[in-house]
Specification:
about 0% strand; cell membrane
Length: about 400
Amino acid sequence: MKSSAKLPAGWHKAFYTLWLGCFITGMGYSMTMPFISLFIADLGHYSKLQISLYSGLAFAVTFIAQAIVSPYWGNLADRKGRKLMCMRASGVMALTITATGFAPNAIYIIVLRFIQGAFSGYINNATALIAGETPHQRSGWVMSQMMTAGTAGNLVGPLLGGLLSSFFGNWLGAVWGYRIPFFITGFLMLLVFLGSTFLVKEEFTPVSRAEMKPMKEIMHTLPNVKLIIAMFVTTLLVQAANMSIDPIVSLYVKSMMPNSNNIAFVAGVVAATPGLGTLLAASKIGHKMDEIGPLKILRVGLVAGAILFIPMALTSSPWVLAALRFLLGIASAGMLPAAQTVLTLNTPPESFGRIFSYNQSFQAIGSVFGSLMGSTISGLFNYATVFWTTGLTLLLNFMLIILFSLRKTASK
């Protein structure tokens, strides 16, 4: 781990390459996934229940595979380096996403999505790579900037995907309108693979399997293992909070304006505003994190997020909801980046890959848990209850951080 504030040679080229790679990864995912149910519906004579089931599986299997396989890739990253993991993830994603564009049926898509999830992890490995190359004094800013890459991609992706699907759909037919974005995303991921291969330099000495310490031993040697575990749980809960709203945003907006003909546009604005807030605030919060420490930023972000969910549950205006979600995006810029910065500052270099891979597993579990939580609660109760429950989740997370962050030196 680097203690000097001086950036190593070639750092900026690696940073911009990895940032762009994370942006394309986020954009590619959001450019194709929002339309997966429409794609599946056009691939066969499926019932409404089958379309919902297949679409849910196509979404969930990726994260389930990530949660299962990530620790293995983390072990390999600590022996071979994070650059190789970025190459592996981007290369396989280029192949699987392109192949998905040729899907003849729903089962084919689900299988490819599972394979993609098993070999994914570009953003997490890119973040771990650049974190290992960055002096501690700048870790907060770098973690925040890396988060903006995926966030920006997620903002651009749905708009670009919708435009491409409509354009090619009108030209080649509806099914090909959904296929073309997969081909374009696959090509872009190939460019990410080439950039990660030839433009990124990692200062890493390969470690043999025999020389590696067992994970159990490493956990015992960490300065504050309870804090590391608390960050894993924080990643899970914050990701669950982010994902719990996604399945019901458009339905919640529709319930607020049932007679409107502009629901899709308004729902799109409401869905996009958190990402915009994160983008605008990430740099400033990242610098502040480097000044006062990530744990303080994390506590403020969790409290602010929990409070913001209260008026979200009470409002009857989609525009007020959009404004509140914009503020939530600002609070989010102080959650996951802060948790990742704590991990960066408290993890020895020889176990970076494994620690970040376990964090990715918890994030994947959070994605599945959050989506299921939002859908289930809204089905059993109402949309507002989802917001109440999510706010309570962040409040419980705040209490957990207070409990396990008593050693202030761990955040230095």
